[in-house]
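Trying the structure run again after the queue cleared.
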Amino acid sequence: PGGFGPPGGGPAGPGGGRGVELDPLVGLTDASKPLRSKLLAVPAFKAKYLANVKKIAEESLDWKRLGPVVAQFRKLIEKEVEADTRKLDSFEAFKRATDDAVPSGAGGGRGGMNLRAFAEQRRQFLLSHAEVKKAGQ
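Done. Tokens:
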């Protein structure tokens, strides 16, 4: 299903979670992901990948940096979203999903949280991940 907002968080079973809690190392032994598993089997590539994941979590998912970008794009497209007669969710759901406030309870869209909540929770998850913590030290 589509809709506004990021994918929902929480575990999705043996696949390593989804959304907020998607393990950055999921699929390392999955035969259906040969490029990923073979590249990350090389210690230098895995270390570089984890260092990049850590940098993204520290910098790009920091709401102090990401929030103004979301606000800028929201302002740029909100009139078009409001006028869209074929959108999957309401204009109110779009506003909740892109709102700067941390939602209490259910957030925007079908994902159940707004972009800020997703970015903050994803950042926290990645920075607390054992392999990501060790990266770049």
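Residues 64 and 116 are 10 Å apart (CA to CA). Worth checking whether this holds up in the mutant runs.
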